[in-house]
What does this fold into?
Amino acid sequence: MTLDEASRDVALKPMQGKVVAVTGAASGIGREIARVFALAGAAVATLDINDAALGSLAAEYGCRPYRCDVTDAASVKRVLDLAADELGGLDILVSNAGSAQQGAIGDLPMEELRRSFELNFFGHQNACQAAIRIFRRQGRGGAILFNISNQSVNPGKDFGPYGIPKAATLALMKQYAVDHGREGIRANGINAGRIRSGLMTDQMIVERASARGMTPHEYMAGNLLGVEVTASDIANAFLHLAQMDKVNAAVLTVDGGVMATSLR
Ligand SMILES: NC(=O)c1ccc[n+]([C@@H]2O[C@H](COP(=O)([O-])OP(=O)(O)OC[C@H]3O[C@@H](n4cnc5c(N)ncnc54)[C@H](O)[C@@H]3O)[C@@H](O)[C@H]2O)c1
It folds into this structure.
């Protein structure tokens, strides 16, 4: 291979030689993250509670499927250890699995809030602790990328059970950066806006838009650019964040620009 060919390969396949684990990879944004990292040359471990839905990523992009419930610390540890053994280590964890619960915070059964925290906060902590142990064993640093949400900084009405653990996950990201930076481990996150996915279905978009007297397009494109942001946009933002070696403890907002969610 000539020098020119080698540098073209680095440009086209910036994740060549990297092992990436993506939680919640069977659907929506996680699926797109796995696809984009695989196309960028990474060996990708896809983790999901719904492992049956991981088959097409394996067939089309060579991702390795693993059944995993991120709310079960032992399950995540076992699966990430196995994936690291099978794929030759771990360089990047994309902690993505999550789901959106709703309810007015003053009336909400406590159990529902706890259930959301199990997935939208402790699920991230479980995956991160398991990844940290692997990064340490390897002694070559690592990166953790969190899929947070712009709800973490701009709470929506009746969205407390989702937004509150997301705000805690933003704090978790910073804590990992503070505690593990000297080990060469970076922690960053993305705050996405409204994205079509299994969490935000076409049906939900139609209902929410009409409740606000908007068309689905106006609802999804209600940002400064006036365009809909897609799962691919989020996945590509993660890919860029993964390559920014000196970016740490950062939140990248990917929502087309919304003043209420813009960090200051
Ligand atoms: N869709 C949006 O508008 C939006 C906006 C901002 C942030 N996010 C975040 O993006 C992430 C992905 O959401 P999405 O929109 O792609 O939703 P999605 O429902 O399409 O995908 C979520 C995936 O997580 C998996 N999952 C759920 N519980 C799990 C568990 N206990 N263990 C392992 N996997 C589990 C599901 O099976 C599913 O495959 C979430 O963290 C969500 O909060 C979504």
